[in-house]
Protein 1
Amino acid sequence: MSKVVILGAGVSGLTSALCLLEKFPDKILDLQIVASEWMGDYHAHDFTSPWAGANWASFAEINELDQINRDKDAYLEFERLAATDPASGVKPYMLKFGILKDRDLPWYIQQKFVKKIKIMSEEELRFRNLDPSLYHGVEFQSFTVTPGVYNAYLLTKIRRLGGKVKRVPRLDVITDLVPILGYVPDLVVNATGVNAGKLLRHEEPDELKKVYPVKGQILQIYEDLPHQVMVETLPEELNGKSYQFLNIFPRAEGGCIIGGIMAKGDWSRTVDTELSESILEVCRYHVPELKSTTVYNSYAALRPGREGGVRIELSEYQLKGRSGSLKVIHNYGIGGAGYQSSYGSARQVCDLASQVFDSKKTMAKL
Ligand SMILES: Cc1cc2nc3c(=O)[nH]c(=O)nc-3n(C[C@H](O)[C@H](O)[C@H](O)COP(=O)(O)OP(=O)(O)OC[C@H]3O[C@@H](n4cnc5c(N)ncnc54)[C@H](O)[C@@H]3O)c2cc1C
């Protein structure tokens, strides 16, 4: 039986914890989630999970099979949760998606993976101020997740399965876990988001260069909308920033979030008020059915980007000044897709954990 520690209580850490507890009840003696920030904390914009949109609209390119599989797993799980457990905070909505004609349709439309696919009519494109000679549009069933509700729901399930929780100050490096715990766990899952590079800077200096923030800026409004709308590349007449796009997602409890931007490498927390005006203008232009937009909150937060994409990999680090090593499965660097690929990433964590548990069994027999 193994002692497992999950470092990080965002959606990546929580989903990994839940899947491990569900899959290995006979192999896990003790599972503890250790993190400096928890759901309900809104003081840190580099703790990303509370700030997400969050919808399902896979970013994977058609040849990125691993990412496609991760996103497929989460779509199917969100579909199940939305149908069976509204308390999860996951709700189905149709997504109306305007895409430039010179871009391929997303893999999930080409492969007919998502449900209720429709091609947007030229009339609707014109209604949305999208020139049909430049844009095509698709609709399909997506989901919106309310982060606070959903992550609390995951945590409740984890605790029912015996998972424990512990708040700690921010660790400087990953091996600091050992003195904090007072023992060497059999397995650590590193789900520390945009801070993972800093935590690994001694063991793997390259990761410090690879992990980067992708800043987002969001407005929250009181008004409801019966569907989501996304426009990937904004028409020139809107004079938006090069990294600006439109997404508007209604949420289960009412109101919508509106974004946004993808500003790579920007660690700042400032909300740009001029940009907020532009985000609203873009929204009114493409979502004319929204008669008013009463903003009650605006914020900026950081997506955990990584060169090469999410890292789901097993590493082993020697511990200085004591015998033994730390086995770590990484699950960080998922960028803007942490919710929409959460179950697929957690499935891969479980596959690697199975190897660790099996090797422990083999060692015990020797
Ligand atoms: C504006 C915006 C919109 C988004 N929209 C979507 C969307 O529509 N769909 C979607 O799928 N995703 C979306 N995302 C992305 C999604 O939010 C992230 O991919 C996801 O939240 C990352 O979760 P995580 O668990 O990996 O990291 P985090 O949520 O950042 O969690 C990291 C955890 O590690 C802990 N930690 C970090 N460093 C340390 C340390 N040194 N010591 C101790 N603990 C530490 C933190 O306290 C925290 O508990 C959006 C993000 C933003 C900002």
Note: The first helix runs from residue 11 to 23.
Protein 2
Amino acid sequence: MDDIYLDVGTNWLKSKVSDDFTTDTHLYIENIISSMSFGGGLRILDMCCGYGRVSIPLSKRGHFVVGFDVSETLLKSAESAKRKELLNNVMFVRADMLKLPFREKTFDIVLCMWASFNFVAHIEDQLNVINELAAILLPGGVAIIDLPNEHSSSEKLLTLDVSGSVYHYFQHTKRHLEHVLSSSLADSYKIEECMFGAKDRIIVVISKNV
Ligand SMILES: C[S@@+](CC[C@H](N)C(=O)[O-])C[C@H]1O[C@@H](n2cnc3c(N)ncnc32)[C@H](O)[C@@H]1O
């Protein structure tokens, strides 16, 4: 898979996100963490971690974080943030979410934040990713998928151009997500609508039975 950030760089992605959006993203995750009856650091997977916007603060709070992404450019930025903060409880690896390289029952929390799931173009792959993600959760674990809520009446596959790199982006609807999740292997799930900063979001929360 191509690194669409190779030319535009990490700063391009950073310029697309507001502090309010990131603050509300962290508040949402912290609420989930505090509702779980775990003591101590959690094992967290940050799928499509980008430059570590979510992984770095979570590792600073004492959790054990694995972040993966397909973009070498963004992973280099995540690594340099890790070095700058002298963190040894976060690791970044290159991987493709369509071929998750993790064992079953490995993580307490799996995160897929800020539209990363929109990069999964085909419905069969969306179902596979959700099934894989449910499989790598430990009993009692929770996965969160955060997507833009376009309030559109129908889901659609868009072709976007980032500085000459063309990629597919699946615009989700609550109804479509309900359809995919209802045929998934997830033990249980809920689909919520909320705001992160000024942005409307759809949040999928998948829970694994204890
Ligand atoms: C909008 S960014 C979000 C980054 C990060 N999750 C965050 O919240 O800051 C989308 C990310 O998905 C990554 N991505 C897209 N397709 C991917 C794939 N198949 N496997 C792994 N990462 C992917 C991109 O490289 C990019 O880092």
Note: The beta strands are 43-47, 64-69, 90-94, 107-112, 137-148, 156-162, 165-171, 188-196, 199-207.
Protein 3
Amino acid sequence: MSRGSPALKTFTDRQTGAAVRAAKWRAGKTDIPGVELVPLKENDRCRDCGQYVMLHGRLPGGRLACPGDWIVLGEKTATVVRPGDFEAKYEEDDGGIL
Ligand SMILES: [Zn+2]
């Protein structure tokens, strides 16, 4: 059983107070249920970040996470949030102001 991924941390939405789990995507380092590595044969460059697509994560539905993007897991959803946007929207539970 491999529940819980060590890469995932808990964050709170600054506006709604909702708790989410999220991890910064790094190919080969980030193990998130439902997010797959793009196969090595897909060696195109990403239109967003210019890096090879094989360094990306593929979410259910096909959305790609660029290296350094945050993947935010809700109850039944996984979304990609750009660095910067993520820090503005979410606060890490550990180390925040209590
Ligand atoms: Zn990209």
Note: Strands lie at 9-13, 19-24, 36-37, 57-58, 64-65, 70-73, 78-81, 90-92.
Protein 4
Amino acid sequence: MGESQCAAGQTVLKSHSWQNAPLRAPLNMCSPAAVTRTLRLTVHHGQTLSVALDGFVSGGRRFKSGASRHVGQHFQTTIETAPEKYKTIDDLRGPSLATTVYWLFGKGYSDKSHAMQVEHKKLYGPIWRSRFGPFDVVNVASPELISQVIRQEGRYPVRTELPHWKEYRDMREQAYGLHVDKGLQWYRIRSVLNPKMLKLAEVSVYAPVIHQVVGDLLQRIERLRLRSQDHTTVPDLTAELYKFGFEGISSILFETRLGCLEEEIPKETLKFIAAANDMLTLSETVLFLPLWTRNVLPFWKQFIRAWDDLVNVAQRLIDHKLAQMDAQVLAGKQVEGMYLTYLLSCDKLTLGEVYICITELLLGGVDTTSNTLSWALYLLARDAASQDRLYREITSVCPGRQQPRSEDLSRMPYLKAVIKETLRMYPVVPGNGRLTVDNDVVVDNYWFPKKTQFHLCHYAASHDEGEFVDAERFRPERWLRGDPESYQHHPYSSIPFGVGVRACVGKRVAELEMHFALSRLMQHYEIQPEDGAPTTEPKTRTLLIPSKPINLRFLPRA
Ligand code: HEM
């Protein structure tokens, strides 16, 4: 079986042999490049720590960099000082179990964990410990400390253990996929997914299909606003953008249109949307509850059902594509396609892995872009000057409502700054995780053994007045090079997609979708809040989302 690139960057299938592939990939299916690279990385020099920078200083202690080797962005460096010289997790301050329960349920922070980050940082400083039942977490909430953790994350970083996801996969004898697989297996999968997701030139191939979906979004917005009482207001914009996000990412992943922006949404799509919502909501509940409750409470069964629905929908769409490809090959035709065709034909993933990876990409790619776009429009609607500056930039690069091409985006720095600033203020992933697996680490003069769970408090870091002047104000200018309002930020002060090898695989696709959608919405409409509409606060439901529906007025531009 083989796969090659046609001129347009599309994948052209030469032959097919994916059927009968084992469900979970054996190690020998790793790409040779991944294996070689990994073997090179496993060379150690005595007792090592991977630390942030050459000659990096942690808590006043300097690490010798003489024995270090550059490994990607990490440095393997010999530590000069014995662990016992450092403070330990037991020296960290932080809320007890009772205090945490009081914060969550007494003070009402259960859906405001982003705000709790900020308050706890004020109380305990930029590093503190939280304990909650079996969970013991070290929180870091300054760019410097976040960078120290990430730079020691090891070769194959792990966010957190997901034993209940793994249990489900084992139960159904499915492949593990990106979130459950670890180490070399995770790296092997990422190496296959990355090229056509993260390389700018490759991602540009998706521009036409994204534009089609944006066109449907514009039509839907027009229908909804005309249907409203004042012929301008679109109610619950996030729900509409969710459909856009779903259609956008699935048109890339499945190479087919699902019709989410039509009047009547297909049943299968509604099923997937409901299942994604259920799975994410139940995931935390199931993890917290003791095993015996599974026979008494409905949550575990619901969690399984939600996963079944998710995987089944993705599987049916993939099988449909496979049947099409088969028919074309049998008819002696060349099979052309994009992401799914590439995954199915590259011979590096089993069919079982393709099912799970596509499901995971879909799960990661919908709420994230849709919520970010909702916040961007919400912020622009309340800041006429920024909206005007954005509109002027877009019309100067693409006059007469020309569709922006990928290359036009490089001449739209303000557009990019608007998205960056939106993600700084409302990072859709407000907190991330790192579980140290390879090494003991030192962060801020504390020594942490392997298996320490860190919580990276991105929201608190990107709302810190010390990092961002007027942190609560929407000021896209702060990201513009050469603008009087711009200034140098710590590189880890706002990292909404994460950084390093485990960072978001969908970053480029998400940016392309958001840049195209926002620029074309601006070309067509001036956006305003409803008269007297109060501010909308965010809330956390794993992701940072608006706490109530965002209704905006869309006034057609001349
Ligand atoms: C505004 C848009 C998005 C934001 C802010 C975002 C943010 C993130 C963050 C913070 C992570 C964790 C990174 C880390 O641990 O260092 C992540 C992981 C991930 N994202 Fe995104 N994401 C976005 C859009 C997307 C899209 C469009 C897709 C699908 C195409 C996607 C798929 C994934 C997947 C599969 C992972 C797990 C990667 C791994 O574990 O190897 N994301 N994302």
Note: The first strand starts at residue 3 and ends at 5.
